[in-house]
């Protein structure tokens, strides 16, 4: 209802207007009445009406003076003037003050009703305009939506004014993108629930604002997330609010200008898309992926198909020989291979399915797996497609293969080669020679070299070098000096270690340690 105040010095007229007009049917309600302009001012301040109906001729303060006072005070209500005199001068003054109607006493009900309908239309338009302005200019969430979807021809001054009016002109901005890991059918509900929880948790503490932009929820924080501890705290808060809903969250980094929020948003979305290759159970960051860490090998330029066949072969013999220490290293090498092929997460899962299936089939053929064990294998292989993070997939695959290895155990004609591989893993740092192993296994050195190459695909010295280089990478990642690593892995000469490392890794140990 539109609130109305009637001001007239004649009590009968005030009473008559209240009873003769069907106010409620027209969408109005009488808030109060007054006998002069001065009394009306106090009522208007208290009631805040949208329509004033005032007589011109009144004691103390007449109707035109009242309207003039209201306009000077920037009151925007609609006004209808009543006059007992059909005087054009009054009409001209009333028009100057922007009145919505000028009616001559005695008031005609039909004429008053028609005027009220016109005024109602004007008031409703003004309400819509105010609501639109309030929504567009004073709503921080809509302003953020505009910053996340910039228009090419957006006027920078207008945009900056909107940012200032919505209270988003901060010294720092950090944008966080959250992606619930749910089905499309459940996405809308999950976004709404998580967004509502975050609004309550974040906005009430004035940490920033929250908005939805399917398939994401976006947090715009007003302070940078400096340090791992602060990022972990935010991630834990999101996880607490999310409950059982799985999600991925990433920051786009800190910016100091609101116009740069969009770039941070793009970076955060990219980090979310790369989440499978990143660290699990933490707030992700642009460009920081798991496979860029030192423990993942820098692969040579060999043909990928050849590298994969070699990986399957080495994993199979490591498992069959009981060489537990090599399994995770080889799985990480496989992950690096698939990433080098620019595979997306779905393709990586498929590649791990193929890799693991090929190894299990080789082991099963020699171990005669029971049917009930093959059912367990089938469940594991199908579960490969459910992992959100590569690290989880690697750890579960590693755990499963080790259990499988316990069941299969080493056996067969290749026992000697398996012993050699195990011996190399344990004694790589010593002055290890093929002739020494040949003596231990009671073979001639040339024959054992041929046998080793036929079973592993590598010359003995090449295989030993690769094991040493892999160990060197682990030690360098721990912060050890290059000369210390060279000595620990069995190279007497630092220069010789440099040449070997560069041969297999394509860069020097120093470059690997400090990329």
From TrEMBL:
SMART domains in the record, alphabetically? HTH_ARAC, REC
Q: Name one GO molecular function term.
A: DNA binding
The protein's UniProt keywords, in alphabetical order, are: Cytoplasm, DNA-binding, Phosphoprotein, Transcription, Transcription regulation, Two-component regulatory system
Q: Where in the cell is it found?
A: Cytoplasm
- Residues that bear 4-aspartylphosphate: 55
Record domain HTH araC/xylS-type: where: 418-515
Keyword DNA-binding included in the entry's annotation: yes
Does the record's keyword annotation contain DNA-binding?
Answer: yes
Output the SUPFAM superfamilies linked to this UniProt entry: CheY-like, Homeodomain-like
Q: A Pfam family matched by this chain, by name?
A: HTH_18
Record domain Response regulatory: where: 3-120
What's the protein name? DNA-binding response regulator
Q: Which organism is it from?
A: Paenibacillus helianthi
């Amino acid at each position: 209802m539109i609130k109305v105040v009637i001001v007239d010095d004649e009590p009968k007229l005030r009473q008559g207007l209240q009873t003769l007009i069907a106010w409620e049917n027209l969408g109005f309600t009488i808030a109060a009445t007054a006998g002069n302009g001065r009394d009306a001012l106090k009522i208007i301040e208290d009631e805040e009406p949208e329509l004033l109906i005032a007589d011109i001729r009144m004691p103390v303060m007449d109707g035109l003076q009242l309207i003039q006072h209201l306009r000077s005070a920037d009151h925007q209500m609609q006004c209808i003037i009543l006059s007992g005199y059909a005087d054009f001068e009054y009409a001209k003054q009333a028009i100057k003050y922007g009145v919505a109607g000028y009616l001559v006493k005695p008031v005609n009900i039909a004429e008053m009703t028609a005027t009220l309908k016109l005024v109602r239309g004007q008031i409703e338009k003004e309400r819509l305009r105010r609501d639109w302005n309030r929504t567009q200019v004073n709503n921080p969430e809509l302003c953020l939506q505009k910053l996340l979807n910039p228009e090419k021809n957006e006027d920078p001054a207008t945009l900056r004014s909107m940012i200032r009016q919505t209270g988003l002109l901060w010294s720092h901005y950090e944008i966080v993108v959250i992606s619930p890991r749910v089905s499309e059918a459940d996405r809308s509900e999950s976004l709404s629930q998580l967004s509502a929880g975050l609004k309550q948790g974040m906005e009430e503490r004035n940490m920033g604002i929250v908005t939805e932009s399917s398939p994401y929820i976006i947090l715009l924080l007003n302070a940078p997330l400096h340090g791992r501890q602060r990022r972990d705290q935010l991630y834990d808060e999101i996880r607490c609010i999310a409950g059982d809903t799985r999600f991925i969250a990433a920051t786009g980094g800190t910016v100091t200008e609101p116009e740069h929020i969009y770039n941070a948003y793009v970076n955060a979305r990219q980090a979310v898309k790369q989440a499978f290759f990143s660290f699990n159970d933490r707030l992700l960051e642009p460009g920081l992926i798991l496979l860029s860490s030192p423990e993942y090998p820098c692969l040579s330029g060999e043909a990928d198909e050849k590298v994969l066949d070699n990986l399957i072969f080495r994993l199979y013999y490591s498992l069959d020989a009981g060489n537990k220490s090599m399994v995770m290293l080889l799985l990480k090498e496989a992950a690096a291979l698939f990433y080098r092929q620019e595979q997306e997460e779905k393709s990586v899962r498929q590649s791990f399915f193929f890799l693991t299936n090929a190894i299990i089939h080789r082991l099963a053929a020699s171990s005669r797996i029971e049917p009930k064990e093959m059912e367990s294998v089938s469940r594991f292989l199908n579960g490969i497609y459910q992992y959100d993070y590569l690290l989880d997939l690697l750890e579960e695959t590693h755990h499963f293969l080790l259990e499988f290895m316990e069941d299969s155990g080493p056996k067969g004609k290749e026992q000697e080669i398996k012993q050699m591989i195990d011996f190399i893993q344990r004694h790589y740092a010593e002055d290890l020679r093929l002739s020494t192993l040949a003596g231990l296994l009671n073979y001639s050195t040339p024959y054992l070299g041929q046998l080793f190459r036929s079973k592993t695909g590598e010359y003995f010295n090449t295989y030993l070098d690769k094991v040493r280089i892999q160990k060197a990478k682990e030690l360098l990642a721990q912060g050890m000096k290059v000369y210390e690593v060279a000595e620990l892995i069995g190279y007497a000469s630092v220069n010789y270690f440099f040449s070997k490392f560069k041969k297999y890794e394509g860069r020097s140990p120093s470059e690997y340690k400090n990329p």
